[in-house]
Batch of 2 targets.
Target 1
Amino acid sequence: MLWLIPILPLLGAALNGVFGKRLSKTLITSIAVGSVALSFLVAVREFLTMLSLPESQLPILTDYFTWIQAGRFQAQFGFMLDHLSGLMILIVTGVGFLIHVYSAGYMAREEGFYRYFAYLNLFVFFMLTLVLADNYLLMFVGWEGVGLCSYLLIGFWFTRKSAADAGKKAFIVNRVGDFGFILAIMLIYWTFERIDFQGVFSRLGEASDFAVEPLGSVGVLTAIGLLLFLGAAGKSAQFPLYVWLPDAMEGPTPVSALIHAATMVTAGVYMVARSAAIYNHAPGALLVVAVVGAFTAIFAASIGLVQTDIKRVLAYSTVSQLGYMFLACGAGAYAAAMFHLMTHAFFKALLFLAAGSVIHGMGGIQDIRKMGGLRRVMPWTHKTFLVGTLAIAGIPPLAGFFSKDAALWAAWNDANYGKLLWLVGVIAASFTSFYMFRLLILTFYGSPCYTEQDVHHVHESPNSILIPLIVLAACSIVAGFAGVPPVLGGDNHIQQFLTPAAHEAKSESLGTTAVELTLMAISTGAALAGAGLAYLFYVVRPALPERLSVQAHSMYSIMLNKYYVDEIYDSVVVWPVVRMSGEFLWKFVDAFMIDGAVNGIGRLVRGSGAGLRHMQSGYVRTYAGWILLGGVLVIAWFLK
Amino acid sequence: MNLATINIAAILPTLVLSVVGIVVMVAEPFVGEQKKSNLGWLAFAGTLAAMLSLVPMANNRGQWYSNLWIVDDYDVFLDFIFLLIAAITILTSMDFLRREELNHPEFYSLLLFATAGMLMMAASNELVMVFLGLEILSIATYVMAGFRRADLKSNESALKYFLLGSFSSAFFLYGIALIFGATGSTNLLAIADALRSSKIQISLVSLSAALILIALCFKVAVAPFHVWTPDVYEGAPTPVTGFMSVGPKAAGFAVLFRVFLTAFPSIEDRWGSAIWMVAALTMILGNVIAVVQPNIKRMLAYSSIAHAGYVAVAFAATSDRGVSAALFYLLAYSLMNLGAFAMVTIISRKEDKLVNVTDYAGLGSKRPGLAAVLSLFMLSLAGVPGTAGFAGKFFIFRAALESRLVWLAIIGVVTTVISFYYYLSVIVQMYMREPHDEFSDVRLCGSLKFALVISAAGTLYLGLLPTRVLDWTTTAALR
Amino acid sequence: MLETWVPVLIFFILVAGFGTVSLVLSYAFGPKKPDARKLSPYECGMRPIGSARERFSVKFYLVAMLFLLFDIEAVFLFPWAVVYRDLKLFGFFEMLLFIVVILAGYIYAWKKGALEWER
């Protein structure tokens, strides 16, 4: 039955893609939403079946057919269900279902309605293939597939140049990461002579020739780990490959919620957690993961502090939160990373969808400086957005508190630079809290900064938009209780649940209970401080930010311009490549050398063809002559 | 010989084809004008029945009828190809015959007899038997080439094919006579045994091998014995051209492999290098001359010569891997080439006249479905990855490299690149030229659709999932 | 092995030699007194009308071919009849099959009207 989970959305995509033009909107919606809903139900059923099995029978492996066989190389088309992929299929189909419902209301008046749903369903199919795959190559197929769908959906409004450019940017930046992933797969095959997860991990577990490579040495496993992480950094928007994600906000908002917040961008985290066995043998690679994760977390959060576009703030927030997940992975706490992945999927999808509801109600305005006071006009949107803000800021007892804390605690316990990573994480957390409350206050509180002339008829969104918001808000409140740590009287279900699948090294807890509680208090304090600062800046003394931006002008403008990273890339990478290809490759190599050679050979072939056709006189006697000549030559050769 | 030694199952497919062929022929004068198409379906059913009877035949492996007849995996696989060719050709011809007012069901009888001849060739273990099959095939094909009796070109085609075919048959017969003189037998295994003993006049044996090789090279149309092909293919009715470009060719290769690898392995040093040169020459000539052909039937004729060259590369490899690659290629080539000719049949329309490449201009915008299918066949013939043509060429070149025929593989790849030019020119016409024709009189009836679906599905299947068929050909190649 | 065929070779030489010798002798010693009538083609003693290279109706060929087919069938029957007793039942059925196939062809030719001169 496992195959049914991805096949259903594929079927939906095929139906809508092929016949969508002729179908009514109701039918298109039912097909798209229905297929994902069914897929979700099947996923739940499979998940429960998996839970009922004893641990020795896991993972559930199903091979459907041999996909590629070339010599000793073999790739199966097969799925693997264990705790890790089980959690992912629930998130993908569950959140995916809610966002499909939301889209039905949000996209109702769009041209190409069917095209949108066909892409969205196709995305769900590829995402499920990615998480269910039982080998790296099949995972790569899903990986590329979601990249394709992401490209198509970012550029959904392809008549807008900025949208088309953003799609291209996402695709090209991702290529850099994919390049690393492909090299990693080749290196894995070269090292282990197989590419299925179980086979690779069991060889790692048994053979003594794969010792843990000490920190500082770069062996083959470290190389694999680094290359895999390059792939993950591309897909999950980590420094320095994060640049595509903020631009990806050109796509429709539900797409940002599903693909660029809840699911696709977490594929990198999933891949690293899936490859835990490799990373545990390569502490050097793990350290890189942790450092890049922590740096991205604070770097992106600092950019988020000053952005004014509601979706861009959320985009940088996503980059920053993904950084937390990699920080946890890098500290060897894969379960904590997956925990944060799950809670983040809920509250970030919620925030995006609520932002979408705001944009919808405001008739397309995204600048938070032109909003304000929406609390009264959009009460439900406001309430759910508030929940999302509290959750992401890490205010107990909402989901974000527990998961972020698990990640930070893991960082603290990391033997290498753990304390420093923790400190970076806490500062980033206070940043997060600040920009989220800033967003909340500017959007929903105070007095409206728009006039009726600018925006007609600001209104609350319809039910198909609000219901997913409410469901996600509920999840954002309760999801954290899956991982209440022992010091707070819980037993950390999710940690125990994921440990067998995540190959987690049993951590010998370094810190004591007192330390843990202290750290928790500090991080909560940081969150509250950020919130308080936002309150001070935007409610108590609204003139303060203005003064600050003038006084610390250089710092402010660097952050507002996103540290000029895009400009640096343009001048260091894009411009030289364009010049090189325009002046040298195109005009000289292609137009002169290659075209010249091709045309020359073409003329040569045509000329000799025209000459040789004179063999064909049309007379039988000539033909018999040729045959005789050939016969004489063959006989002579035989009798030589 | 007595009744007990008769093994019906071993010859069942051939028997079925012959009986159905005779029934169709005898029934023809008794059937009214309206119901003549039904005989076409009867013939089609005959090929299907013959395909089914491959199962009992496959269960009767071994040598039968005084070792004249051999049943092995090689035989079964080739028979499958032949029957598939016959079935698709029947489906393609039905509408054609009606359209051209040539609705004489004798056509189907001839086709079935020709196919029976091919089955005999694949199953013969004996040179005289091979000759018998060859003649049954050839005579039926001569008639089919001239089936459009009132058309001068068709007559020309039949006469040229007949004259030159007889010429090559003489080579074959002379070869048989000499080998009998040298070894005292025409049985392939007996010849091989005799050649192992040292008392044989090696020059006599070489001469007869050369003569047999020449005759079969004529049949499969490899250079320099290909000169008849373009004229004959151009004049023959299009479905017949399709049949001729795959059926006799596959049967000829079936015999070439069997005769030379069974009977003459001990003088491989003589014929191996000859095949090398023939293959290289064929690939170069076929592909280069095809580039300048404005007539699509002539273009496909040269393309079929070129493809025979690729199969000859597999032959030159003289390994099991080579035979298996050749078998795979024959199946792939049959499917895509029959598909291409079915499309040519459709587009040529009344009188079979519109056969220039420029007649395809704008097909892509007027009839996108047909254009897409034809593009698939063209891409497959060119050998684009994902299609049967690519998989086939890949296996052949791999076999060549394993047998250290590096230069032959290089020539093959280079000429494949040349072939892209003329295959893609059809696609260019269809999609990038303005239509000067509405294509409104292009009719597509059920049987033709069926033929196209089989060929297209087969082309894609072999291209995307070649493993299963390759496994089959690998077992078929083990002797 | 080839030695056994030496008499045949001698026979071939004798035949060819005899033909050549007689032709050469008659050419060398025969009297030659040509006139116009002698050099004209012989046509039952009548004066020739038109060209001798006339086109024959295709019907003649059809009849000739049919004759050839059934004639060959009859030829096959002779050796079969000689060894009929040795072949026993197998021979009987085998020939029956052969004749049935030929008969099918005969029926076909008949129904198609190949045996009627005027159509």
Note: Residues 2-112 of chain C form a domain with the Methane Monooxygenase Hydroxylase; Chain G, domain 1 fold (CATH 1.20.58.1610).
Target 2
Amino acid sequence: MEFIIDSLKEAIKLIVKLDREFLEIVLLSLKISGVALIISIIVGLPFTFFLYYKDFFLKRVIIILINTFLGIPTVVVGLFLFLILSRSGPLGFLGLLYTPYAIIVAQFFLSLPYIISITFSSLEKLDKEILIAYKTLGANTLQIFLSLLKEVRYGVLTAICSGFGRIISEIGAVLIVGGNIAHYTRVMTTAIALEIDKGNFILALALGLILLAITFVVNLFLYFLHKNMKK
Amino acid sequence: MLFYIYIVFFLFFIGCKSEKDKKILKIATTSSLENSGFFRYILPKFETKFCVKVHLIVKGSKQAIEVGKRGDVDLVFVHVINPEEGDYRNYFEIEKCFYNYFLIIGPNNDPAEIRKVDNAYSAFRQIIENNHLFLSRADNSGTYYKELSIWNKLGINPKNYKNYVEAGFNMEKIVFMADQLEAYTIVDIATWKYLKNKVKLRPLYENPNDTTMLNQYYILVVKKFINVNVNYDYAIKFREWLLKGDGKNLVLNYKINSDSMIFKFK
């Protein structure tokens, strides 16, 4: 027990004095996951509205597939991307494996289903009449998109938070396609695993605390969001 | 003022090109070399001298070879595996590098009494046949192949024994796990020197002259034709620097916890 308390004290010291290595890893993680999240929002939201707006063959199949991807193990995504991005793979000429871009691609695919699925389910709760109303008022597609976005803003924010929570804390894909290269693709989760291997529990613990804090803040935000929504 | 301008000019001419323009050398290595701190010691010196950035990817020996074959890295460090076997020559230029040795570690009270034996084979036999826990890497690493070769010579299939535990972790994790389980395991001397103050286990069979426990490292340079993007030139520079140049002296002077002579050259 004493060991745990001592380590915790040292870890907090490390956080407070903003140790360079520690700070670098945290910022890199936020940067990579942030970019991945933004791309999946840009791709995900229009796709979701398209899915809601248009009725077409296989629509339900696509929705079921996306919901399946919510639970896909991150190592499986990592494995597929490794095979595709490897120099001997179909996209090997891009030279993306073992770079931060490969991690962004992996995290994009991991957060996208969250963005789509959660946004879609809040859209479905809307009254279908609303679409007809917009159309009779003569709104164009972009106007409908923006109006719907406003209607389901809480759902969209929930989706974004969930997607972020998924990718900031995942290790499977990051380790496989990133390679855990120091100062380059070493993010919080892979650094924690490595430091535990090396028996340096202090840095691991400090990073763990930050990760916990980030997830906590995200959830706190979600909590107030839902509280607001009920009002 | 002029003085500062001079300094800026001076730095401009002697310094490396900007971070962005630097060539990147990708090295896949076994966990035993990286986690014990060897590369953190040697790479900065190579990077400064040749103005290059090294990206290090840590894998078990077999996996490291696999990513090399695919052309995802430029140079591969492995140990134990005999690169003369199989089709490795088709993909790599292979050179023998430094060596050290493996030892058997276990609980201090040594229930299998391997402190008394004079060769590695008897030690392995006593552990497994007297029902003492033996922790195996079971992960296609060099250390695992070393262990398998010993069981093979003994004609023992360890998987038939309940006290043989296949963990599937890297070297450091296995040492910590063996410590918790009070099990025996085999470890390379570099990793051991790095971890020995962090665990209660003790070295129980250690003989630097026993060829059975030899830990030979190899440098594999990925051949140019594997992929046009392979950084062959810098891989060769690194190999020559390490085997013949300044790197060799750095390796010989390498210390872990003030113990020297971690790696030797033949």
Note: Chain A touches chain B at residues 86-89, 92, 95, 97-98, 179-182, 184, 194, 196-199 (CB under 8 Å).
